[in-house]
Amino acid sequence: MEVPCVRVERERGEETRRRLADRGLLAAEFEIEVEDGFLYLPVTDAEAVPEELEVVSRSVGERETPDAPADLLGFEPTYERLGDIVIVDEDDPATAREIADAVMASDVPAKTVVNRASKVKGELRVRDWEVLVGDGTETVHREYGCEYLLDVAEVYFSPRLATERHRVAEQVSADERAFDMFAGVGPFVVPFAKRGAEVVGVDLNERAVEYLRENARRNDVADRVTAIQGDVRDVVSGSSRPQGSDGIREIAPDYADWADRVVMNLPHSADEFLDSAVELAGDDCVIHYYDIQHEDDPFGPGEAAIRAAADPEYEVDVETRHVVRSYAPHELNVCLDVRLSR
Fold it and tell me: What is the largest CA-CA distance in the chain?
């Protein structure tokens, strides 16, 4: 059957396959073929393929339909994948175990299945897990050409926000100075640095900062990343003087008026840190402010808080009011892209 395929040199095949998979462009129902030193990767949408990749039409074989957990269970289970860990969220232990066994017996590429054992809790935003199958909770997650080593039991990370992180990263220009106030393992920091920005990432969780430093190295952007452990308010005010780390340059002593872009992805309490964000902002700065509000007025409270914090030093222009996802019944997770101009 003739289908659009990305044609790429064999030595670049795995890198390109991952890149297409991260964008959801691989056509899983067709075989990947090799001929004369080139890989042919079937894609679902030729128009969405990055323009630097070559797309050709080629006759390729159809793959046999792989066994999915639903084929083995007789119902469609709810789960998500994070690297080679499959995450389920089941209150009934027997159902959780049944899903875990089906996942491992299926063609899903998983080494571990875990069940959520608590809600996100505490200042470090971590949760408890029950390991149903496998050993260990560390994995490597890949999205949009970046990879992140992390341990789900020690850090907060949501694969559901990959599209949102990419939306923001695409706005970043080379030579910007960007500051992620709640950086985690680096899912904003790393792609920003890959686009040529100088990036500072701060997090209260010491383990998250260790992973952030490692992920900067893994993605070859350590020379553009500063990773700091501590309360971001102390870092911005200068009352904290964190140390640098091997492979990561030493930090500057003062970040007042420093940033061209600030990320505030702490949606339940980002408003408590707006004074620090304004202190960070340079003469012209974009703030990505995440919030959770009732659907009747999802943007108003955040916008009012930003204007109050920025007044009278800055003019405030809301460039984007964006719904990220539904969070709970009648509640929305939203982002305000706001430009502050001194």
Answer: 65
Q: Bridge partners of 114?
A: 87, 131
323-339 pLDDT, tens digit per residue, is 999 999 999 999 999 99
DSSP 74-112: SS---EEEETTEEEE--SSHHHHHHHHHHHHHSS---SE
**What's the rounded mean pLDDT across residues 260-279?**
96
> DSSP assignment, residue 307?
H
Q: Kindly give, in sequence order, each residue whose CB lies less than 8 Å from that of residue 177, ignoring residues fewer than 6 positions away.
A: 197, 198, 199, 200, 258, 259, 260, 261, 282
According to DSSP, the residues that pair with 331 across neighbouring strands are: 294, 328
Please state, in angstroms and rounded to a whole number, the distance separating the CA atoms of residues 259 and 329. Answer: 36
Burial of 213 (0-12, 13-18, 19+ CB in 10 A): buried
- 72-98 pLDDT, tens per residue? 888 889 899 898 999 999 999 999 999
Name the pTM for this structure.
0.78
Residue-wise pLDDT for 29-53, tens only, equals 888 899 998 999 999 888 889 889 9
**pLDDT reading at 321 higher than 90:** yes
247, 213 Cβ separation under 8 angstroms: yes
- The structural domains of the chain, ordered by start, are 2-59 (3.30.70.2580), 69-136 (3.30.300.110), 156-341 (3.40.50.150)
Alpha carbon distance 118, 125 (integer Å): 11
pLDDT recorded at residue 65: 58
Q: How far apart are CA 171 and CA 286, in angstroms?
A: 10
Q: How far is CA 271 from the centre of its chain?
A: 21
Distance CA 124, CA 231 (A): 11
Cβ distance 7 to 38 under 8 Å? yes
The residue ranges of DSSP E strands in the chain, in sequence order, are 2-9, 33-35, 38-42, 54-59, 79-82, 85-88, 112-116, 129-133, 138-143, 146-151, 177-180, 198-203, 225-229, 259-264, 281-294, 315-328, 331-341
